[in-house]
Amino acid sequence: MEPAGRLLFDDDTKEIGRLLFEDPLYSEYESLLKLGRAMQQNRSGKGDYIFESRGGEQKTLKTASWDSIEIFGTQWRVLVAKANP
User: CA spacing 20 to 30 A to 46: which of 13, 66, 79, 81?
Assistant: First the structure.
């Protein structure tokens, strides 16, 4: 994710290029938006959020950790998330 909220990559290709804070897909997921704001403000961290499971069949709690990389003067947040059983 770019710090402004654009998703650069996701294993669910429908999410690539979307803007986390503006796209209606994410508007009802307050915990995800809260995590995104934390990612904007912090170069690394961790947190939990609720979002659709792969395929959008149901909502699931996920745990995520992120760190930052800088390439060509641009920062990107790299997040790894795991669904909780």
Answer: 13
